[in-house]
Amino acid sequence: DLAADGAALLALRAAVGRTVLPWNASESPCFWHGVTCKSSSRVIALRLPGVGLIGSIPAATVGNLSALRILSLRYNGLSGSLPPDISSLTELRNLYLHQNRFSGAIPSGLGSLGKLVRLDLAGNQFSGAIPPELTNLTRLRVLNLESNQLSGEIPSFDLPDLRQFNVSFNQVNGSIPPKLRTFPANSFLSTGLCGRPLQACPGEIAPSPAADGPTAQGPAGENPSREDGNGKKKLSGGAIAGIAIGSVVVVLILLVLLILLCRKNGKSKTSSLDAVEARGKQPEAAVAAAARDKGLGEGGSGMSATPPTAPSVASAGAKKLVFFGGSGATLFDLEDLLRASAEVLGKGTFGTAYKAVLEIGTTVAVKRLKDVTLTEREFREKVELIGAMNHPNIVPLRAYYFSKDEKLLVYDYMSLGSLSAVLHGNKGSGRTPLSWETRTGIALAAARGIEYIHSNGPSYSHGNIKSSNILLAKSYEARISDHGLALLAGPASSSTRVAGYRAPEVTDPRRVSQKADVYSFGVLLLELLTGKAPAQAYLNEEGIDLPRWVQSVVREEWTAEVFDPELLRYQNVEEDMVRLLQLAIDCTAHFPDKRLSMPEVVAQIEEVRSSALKALNQDQQSDSTGIVEEGDGHSSRRTGSITQS
Ligand SMILES: Nc1ncnc2c1ncn2[C@@H]1O[C@H](COP(=O)(O)OP(=O)(O)OP(=O)(O)O)[C@@H](O)[C@H]1O
Asked: 312 CA distance to ligand 1 centroid (A)?
């Protein structure tokens, strides 16, 4: 009970923190710095990073905190052996003891902490062998043993969830166990180990580059960042010959394509986009040149004047680019568009998107629609509805083009790309994680954009809310894209939509509703909070989607586990994170009637957002010097509680 927990904590203070822990014994331990309770009845987290604890931890101190889930004593001066009764903390998920002076053997009893997710013992003086019992920790995601004095061979870990592993700077030796060979070389630096990703062991055949390919995946089969190795493998003679022959073939194919392109001169004015599509993201000067070869670019009429509100027509021979006015945007004509250097941004449900940089300097995004079966009149009517939408959180549609063979939509180009790319792309070094303040700003902007779409009438919905349709302009201003495209799309386009965002009641993706948008937005919120893509392979291995995964974790009361580790560095925001998580869970309620409306969602996010801005101000004012690690906040505030919908 809480009294026993309090006594254990006071005993710990007497042993290692007499002068540094200002705990008031007459108050409930739940108010003590670094202590987190559940329902004011048990201590579930003890976080005392870098507070100056010194000495060795006796038995019957932390070992008596039997409800403990998080123990963080990192960056202190703790020494001696770990107390063996640490193995009685069977609720423990995160154990952070790195950067102390612990010595002796790693207790084999740690292997009985079956709920452990993160174990960090780096930067100590642990010696002896790595206990084979640690291989029982089947939920382990992080195992960091770096910079100790461990010796002997590494036990054969086969942990399905292991994402980070490090034994660098130890005296371990022997062959790297097969299941760990997919981790990069810097997991095994300065050891006596051998085998991939290091040098082959004596008697082992060095892997050929070809053999590296398919087996270089992580244990969960989905973590390409582990493939890095030292990147200096030598190519075999066969591979060099293959590359040389391949290059010659590619050059020949390009030559043939160029000849065909020249012959087709004049056939279709927009067919230069085919060339762009074929070339993907290659530099595009040549594409512009190809368009010029076709006689499309010379003598273009440049910018056109525009009336402020009515659609205007920029003429290019028989072809017309129709603009929506009122924005004061610089206009251009079809010829300018064709002369622009372009690159493929990506292929989506409704067609291919291109970035086009016009000679006048304007950059636009052009969407080339596929499978449009509407008549010209129907198409124009529907596109004008889309073009009439005007809101700061909607990507503006500037113009469109319709011909029998080609349907184009011209949008403002959003320079920071999609939320999906920012959140999940570039996992390597140099990545700038999205801050809590930015995430709440994006959530609010996206919610306002959807609210605006819904405000046009009960039959208006977006139908395809997902992170690749949240685009970011400079300073991470978020806007909804692809609004209204479902109106234009043919039946074929509905099949490719990502199921991870689709509300359970939506069986035909073309028949969506506002409540289905709320569901998809809830998934998007979960994505912002967890950092996980709804279609991520390992979530779906068990057939679990993101909302169900979050609910299962929350049900087990590991709320802190669901959050993106990149978010856990922020101080004083835990309660707001939990509020947003609760909102996301409410939005993803199974039954549409139980879901909130978008105005309600916006109102709730506004509250969280203003609190996030306050926290940001506090952070900027306070002199925060601590180094905060994954899964480990400084705040002793309660994480809050979550209810299931
Ligand atoms: N206006 C824009 N500015 C910048 N990038 C854009 C713009 N519109 C689309 N993109 C980028 O182009 C890529 C393809 O977009 P597109 O909308 O065609 O497909 P999608 O969003 O991936 O899927 P879906 O069509 O199902 O919405 C997206 O990843 C997006 O980042």
From this structure: 25
d(C-alpha 495, C-alpha 530), whole Å: 27
- The Cα angle at residue 419 between residues 413 and 422, in degrees rounded to 5: 100
Mutation pick for ligand 1 pocket among 369, 395, 471 (CB with most ligand atoms within 8 Å): 471
Residues with CB under 6 A from ligand 1: 345-346, 348-350, 353, 365, 367, 395, 411, 413-414, 417-418, 421, 464, 468-469, 471, 481-482, 497
Whether residue 195 is predicted with pLDDT greater than 80 in this model: the reply is: yes
> How much is the pTM?
0.55
Task: Identify which has the larger pLDDT, 430 or 219.
Answer: 430
Kindly give the pairing relationship between strand 118-120 and strand 142-144: parallel
Helix (H, G, I), strand (E, B) or coil at 595: coil
| Averaged confidence pLDDT in the chain | 77
Residues 390-409 have a mean pLDDT of 89
Please classify residue 630 by burial: count the beta carbons closer than 10 Å to its beta carbon, then call 0-12 exposed, 13-18 middle and 19+ buried.
middle
CA distances from 300 to 316, 357, 358 (A): 8, 15, 12
- Residue whose CA lies nearest to ligand 1 atom number 13: 346
Whole-number Å distance between alpha carbons of 400 and 367: 9
- Global ipTM: 0.97
The whole-number average pLDDT for the span 354-362 is 84
